[in-house]
Amino acid sequence: MARRSGAEGGEAYDASPFVPEGADLGALRRAAGGCRGCPLYRDATGTVFGEGEPSARLVLVGEQPGDQEDRQGRPFVGPAGGVLGRAVQEAGIDPAEAYVTNAVKHFKFQQAERGKRRIHKTPGLREIGACRPWLRAELRLIDPEVVVALGATAGKSLFGPSFRVTEQRGVVLPMPALDGEEGGEGAGVLVATIHPSAVLRADAEARAAAYAGLVADLRVAAGVLNA
């Protein structure tokens, strides 16, 4: 497993040795299947890489694969993906122009005490940092006009650990540099919003407002695309 010196008290995980230089998206996807940059690969079914056209104008970055995504090997095919798909279309975004991926490419979970249910666990900063080279490679190849960070994990992957969805959502932000490099990952901009799973977790009274907020933030991204 690739490791490097980290700032969290111990070694930090690092996927960069597994990321091939000069690869297209297809080659990146194949290489990601063999990633051993952090321990999450040990329990996950497999790597879940991004999907979409290399010419996509918009990149949607989520947190990590969920249970269904891990089993099917595709991003956003579970309940949260259904919410996102509806919200994207309602916001006026053509799904064909969107590339979907996650900040972390393996499913982090704990096994339920009874039964076979796998319970989602939020990736830590070391796991987010380990997977950042994959996200950076995707963004460099696609060079989208807009990146949408869906939730805290995606935001921290792109902005760093100080990111807060509640403070930075729904506004057009300059695309940040990844891994401290000068300049952003292309000339695009970034819009942050909640993860669609937050809509599903909301109680009945709050769910409609949470969904409306997600759509409103995506309309900000759509406004940039349609400008």
From TrEMBL:
Entries under Pfam families matching the protein: UDG (PF03167)
Keywords on record: 4Fe-4S, DNA damage, DNA repair, Hydrolase, Iron, Iron-sulfur, Metal-binding
Entry-linked CDD domains: UDG-F4_TTUDGA_SPO1dp_like
Residue stretches making up the Uracil-DNA glycosylase-like domain: 49-219
Protein family according to the UniProt entry: Belongs to the uracil-DNA glycosylase (UDG) superfamily. Type 4 (UDGa) family.
Entries under NCBIfam families matching the protein: UDG_fam_dom
Full protein name: Type-4 uracil-DNA glycosylase
Organism expressing this protein natively: Streptomyces luteosporeus
